[in-house]
Design brief:
Structural class: alpha+beta
Largest sheet: 7 strands, mixed
Pathway: Polyol metabolism; myo-inositol biosynthesis; myo-inositol from D-glucose 6-phosphate: step 2/2
Low-confidence stretches: none
EC number: 3.1.3.25
Strand content: 25-35%
CATH superfamily of the largest domain: Fructose-1,6-Bisphosphatase, subunit A, domain 1
CATH architecture of the largest domain: 2-Layer Sandwich
Bound molecules: D-MYO-inositol-1-phosphate
Catalytic activity: a myo-inositol phosphate + H2O = myo-inositol + phosphate
Family: Belongs to the inositol monophosphatase superfamily.
Organism: Hyalella azteca (Amphipod)
Strand order of the largest sheet: 3-4-5-6-7-8-9
Length: 273
């Protein structure tokens, strides 16, 4: 049976908006927070509620599809990307922001088929930013077409990067060396605490580069499509092809800029998703 992508896109939009209402409602209130792998790796009742709601609805509508979700994975469900249509969900990206009521948090929903992204929806209900992309049909912010800035020179580029803490001294040394080199060479650096939204900033031309070593498939599954549909580049930080399950991403407003980043960045390995 063939896949109706119009229907899937409408479903993703409806689910993102429903989740947005839950996030907005909970945003200013006290949150029930649990630590996962560390005091900086958090989950709230909102993350769990949204993921349960989104996956049950998708399962009901598309019983043959597969699912990858941040909280399902944390609960021990196998995280596997095959050629089958696979929905990849981060119920609350920027959970630490959400916990602090820092208004930079979103839900991210993507559908991948044959290991390629077909649609992506990233919704920040606090700032009312709805980012959408469909394969070969462009990237949009609240219905308006967006494009990367196209800048080519790192010294004139704004670089967004998350330098999440790693309980491993060797990895932290790499993080610090990379940060130092970038601070010296680019126009400015920013870190806003949601990989999915950071990537959307590159897609809309507000920043030129986003890279991270250590993020997960659900943080980037929707936003990689936003970048490419906005005319940007998505690579592995070694310069090779991007691999969704390999915990790294380099997004840039032009191939020239991507190459300058590849020359500069040092990489460390994480366990694959
Ligand atoms: C995290 C955020 C953060 C990034 C981490 C992600 P979560 O996602 O996107 O900015 O640096 O790598 O895991 O846990 O808030 O969904």
């Amino acid at each position: 049976n063939s896949l109706d992508l119009d229907d899937c896109f409408q479903t993703a939009l409806d689910l993102a908006k429903e989740a947005g209402l839950i996030i907005s409602e909970a945003f200013k209130k006290a949150k029930k927070v649990e630590e996962k792998t560390s005091p900086r790796d958090l989950v709230t009742e909102t993350d769990k509620l949204i993921e349960d709601q989104v996956i049950s609805k998708l399962q009901e509508l598309y019983p043959n599809h597969k699912f990858i979700g941040e909280e399902s994975t944390a609960a021990g469900i196998k995280c596997e990307l095959t050629n089958d249509p696979t929905w990849i969900i981060d119920p609350v990206d920027g959970t630490l922001n959400f916990v602090h009521s820092f208004p930079y948090t979103c839900i991210s929903i993507a559908l991948w088929v044959d290991k390629k992204p077909c649609l992506g929806v990233v919704y920040n209900p606090v700032l009312q930013q709805l980012y959408t992309a469909r394969k070969n049909a462009g990237a949009f912010l609240n219905g308006e077409r967006i494009r990367v800035s196209g800048k080519e020179d790192l010294s004139r580029s704004l670089v967004v990067m998350e330098m999440g803490y790693r309980p491993d001294e060797k990895k932290m040394e790499v993080v610090h060396r990379n940060a130092k080199k970038l601070i010296e060479r680019c126009h400015g650096t920013r870190a806003l605490g949601s990989a999915a939204l950071d990537m959307c900033l590159v897609a809309e031309g507000a920043a030129e580069v986003y890279w991270e070593n250590g993020l997960h498939a659900w943080d980037m599954a929707a936003s990689v499509l936003l970048i490419t549909e906005a005319g940007g580049v998505v690579l592995d930080i070694t310069g090779g092809p991007h691999d969704l399950m390999n915990r790294r991403v380099l997004c840039a407003a032009s191939p020239q800029l991507a190459q300058q980043m590849v020359q500069l960045l040092e990489v460390y390995d994480e366990d694959r998703d």
